[in-house]
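Course assignment 3, question 2. Fill in each field.
Student: A.L.
Task: Predict the tertiary structure for the chain below.
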Amino acid sequence: MLAAQQQAELEATPTGPTSIADVDLILDENRRLKAKLSAMTKKLDDLSTTNKSLSDENRRLKDSLSKSSSSSNRRSARAAKTQSKSPKSIPISISAAVNPEDVLMVGLTYAGFDPSRLQRNNHGRKVRWFKSFYGVSPTTVAPYLQDMKDMYPRISFKDCLMTMNWLFLYDTYPVLSPRWKQCEEYIGDKVIEYGLKMAELGIKKIIFKLDDTHKLKLGRSLDCVTFMIQEMRLDPSSKWYDYKTHSCGLVSLVCARKESFSHLQISNTFSLLQKYESCLATREPKICSMRGPFIPSMHDITVFRGGEKEVRIEDRDQSALYFQIGGDERFIGDSGYSGEPSKVVTTKDEQSSEFKEFLARAKNRQETFHTRLKSFSVLGTRFRHGVDPDDRMRLHKMAVLAVTGIIQTDYLNGHPPFDIC
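Answer field:
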């Protein structure tokens, strides 16, 4: 009985080959499961990488949205601030009190700058913009306009600035027309009208007398300056030739002398005049004299003497600088004036190095004034106004005196020439 039971169990036990086949199946299934697991793991990694990229992109979008919102808020705040300010009014005539800030804003508005743009920029940049249109800063223009108002109470603020813009840039009337919103005929009439007014003011600002506190023997320097003009087609002659520019020119003797401008209306006085003479005070920011125009071929010392050396003194032009000083007073001049040692001190070999340096600085200072004159394009470029030689001389002297008055005002309002010693 027991033997039969053991035999039955033995027969029920799987044989060797059958067990090996089952193991192979199990191993195959195990490999398939591992491969599937590996594929799922790789897919999970890809999903994780995609999720991270989406998270980064989401974060960037949030940052961008935040910055955009902040910028929009700032713009809205600026817009609200701008709207809350009352816009500056642009006066048509000069007010009772002209201040530099109003002149700055109004002048730039006339020049074409948008008020909102002006409010976004700093003061220094706006002053540079202003000077590029008018030649001097608002701190100079404000007192100059006040002087114009005192002399001409009914003067137009806008027309005065337009004339200063014309003097500095010397644009043609078609260029000025869209800037100043006026027709060419109006602009042409006004710049001449206001230029004559400015010339009258310039004459009042030119004072020959020095400050009594400066008891100087060498209180003034002098020299001549030339300007280019259009060819004198109605009076062609070599007398208009300027050796400096090798073309038609005018010469000015600068020494700031007070005289009436009304004689400019007498045309026959200027048919032979083209040169200007200028004179500066050596210890003061002052233009002492401006004479001319004279023909360029006339020598500087002839202009100074008021006539040729052979002409008797009583027959010379008594308004010449030669007759304006006496005693031991002397002018400082270049070698062109060496023929008048009793009136003009020039550089000599026997002088000390210190004195030569003093004379050189005085003459260089004189040249800086000429540079300032020519920084105004009406004088720095070829002058084209005037229908005949007489009219051209009259209008050119108008421009010289007007610019001289502006520069003198600039000297007295924070921009004087350099000190000699």
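Instructor remarks: The two ends are 146 Å apart (CA to CA). The chain has 13 helices and seven strands.
Grade: pending
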